[in-house]
Amino acid sequence: MTVRRRALLAGLGAAGVAGAVACTPARPDSAPSPVAPGAGPPVAKVRAVTAAARATTLLVAYDLDADADPAVVLRDVHERLDDAPAIVSVGASLFDRHPGLARPRLLTAMPAFPADVLDERWCHGDVLVQTSGPGPVVSTGLRERWRMPGFHPPAPDGSVRNLFGFREGTGNPDVTDAPLIDSLLPVRRGDDEPAWCVGGSYQVVRLIQLATAIWDGETVAEQERVFGRRKETDAPLGAPDAGYATDPEGRLTALDAHIRRANPHTRESEAHRILRRSWSYRHPDAGEGQIFTCFQRDLEKGFVTVQRRLAGEALERYTLTFGGGYYFTLPDPSGDPSDFRGRTLVTRA
Ligand code: HEM
User: Fold this and answer.
1) Residue 232 in domain
2) Does 251 map to a domain?
3) How many domains does the chain have?
4) Ligand 1 lined by 35 (C-beta under 6 Å)
5) Does 247 map to a domain?
6) In this structure, is residue 204 part of a structural domain?
7) Residue 112, ligand 1, Cβ within 6 A
8) pLDDT digit string, tens, across residues 81-112
9) What is the pTM of this model?
10) How many other β-carbons are positioned within 10 Å of the β-carbon of residue 48?
11) Closest C-alpha residue for ligand 1 atom 35
12) Rg (alpha carbons) of the chain, rounded to whole number
């Protein structure tokens, strides 16, 4: 373990390594195949996912009480949220507790990837509710498991930047490109998933502590090398298009630069694109860092493939993932007033 990562671990404070659990290791690499277009018509059913990212966020993960009925709880959560733009997702443990419910095919508990030091107190949950604040949803039958508020630090140019001072979101797929978003985000009819999943999406949350003091001691040139982008302007250091074909040795964009690993821009990597939504956090028990979230139609082809490519990247020395989880975001309900998020999951058609 490097000095930098040891410093991060020491900084985790009350949420730190005492409670850290080395979870099941991530599955070894396998050759991914591109996402098939899907047989059904396009669906873009979680409007809060593709809406413009809000300046603040609040993620609250809950577990259901042993005697709680998921149908009652999900209806109650929906009613309490009223019309607020919210993302409501379910975790693998809900399906462990209620084996009669049809589990999304790829939904497991998030494993620990090689550089992670996961703390169970900051991981998983039966239900995850994400709003733009101010308070959590309180529902009978739910116990809070973890909660993390996030924000975008003010930047003089009004851009969204992380606590390392770099702009966020540039490489995201264009949310106004409906065919592209429909091919990458929502589960579609014809996908090998339970019928209720159509229109929903796999959501990944990673709570990542950042070693800002160490980062701030680096030169801007080194910071730019780590990301592969200019700090001020956000311009890529090299030419990402065509698989960095003009820079095979990494003279312009280092081979271990974050953006080069995250998206190698090959024809094959197009199928592995994800929609990222990140916020910064400062928390008395978890230092400061990044709430990374992303959405995709296929967890393996999306986040898991990208995360495996990031293993050993230059950014790893300054980050420590200690929490988060895998979830499945419930499709928006129909306009019918009696409908609620998750109705098709908990009631038989
Ligand atoms: C603390 C951790 C992280 C930080 C500070 C960070 C920061 C950044 C920044 C500054 C960019 C360039 C601007 C942009 O396209 O948004 C970027 C790009 C990207 N990041 Fe991260 N990121 C982090 C973690 C992750 C993780 C965990 C993943 C996925 C497993 C990821 C996937 C990507 C992707 C796919 C791109 C776009 C690359 C491109 O298309 O050029 N990042 N990230």
Assistant:
1) no
2) no
3) 1
4) no
5) no
6) yes
7) no
8) 987 789 999 999 999 999 999 999 999 999 99
9) 0.91
10) 17
11) 262
12) 20
